[in-house]
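EI: anyone free to look at a 256-residue chain?
SC: sure, send it
EI:
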Amino acid sequence: MANISELKLHAQEQLRGKYWLGFLVCLIVGLIPNVGTVTVGGIDINVNINIAVTRLTGGGGIAWPYLLLLGLVFQLLITLPTTVGRDYYFLRASTSVGKVSDILFAFGSGAYLNIILVMAIKQIIILAAFAPAILVLTFTAAISSTNIFLLLIAVAFVIFALWVNYCFRMLHFVLAESPKMPLRSVLSKSLEISRERRWLMFKLDFSFIGWYLLGALACGVGVLFVVPYHSATVVLLYLELRNSDDPNLAQPANNL
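SC: here you go
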């Protein structure tokens, strides 16, 4: 199996001539969750949503509960599927040439509802894993305490949550290759791929911390230029892990 340095070099080679297309894909998908802050014609879209919701509810102010609900629905129906579309693009780009339209893969896959279901369950699992740490930190802040024991408990919960997160680190790619795969099978496959490789996946992600910090120094904009490189490398790791588990999958799935 190739080491992290080899994977990163391979990713750099694959991005030659395709970097800006990958950058555009990551930029579009990255902007989608923040659509409420995008200005069109000098008018903040968030304002329009607030006004519309307020009129619909007959209220005189900003209807925050309804905005929260709209945000959750938007994330469920649009953001999560396009995230899978982004990973589908990088899977295709690893063997041929992807297209910007790959972002919309989930919507034309014939398995849109299944993709939403799987992604939603994953989000719930990750949120549940982080919940204990959030509760401990919230309690510590509420009582204005610097109790070392509570802080250690919070750190332990954070480590556990990260462990759970890396159990499903490759779930997006499994779903991108097999969008019609049932929920239980996707979760099982993701766990199988990550088994005894979570530390490797963490080290790969952590190896980009320097690039992200450097990008953050450029008013945060530079971070955007690191994402295609990071995404392309993670895809190569996924393919390495997947193929090592099942040599019969050495060729990409037919739907890529």
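EI: The radius of gyration is 20 Å.
SC: 👍
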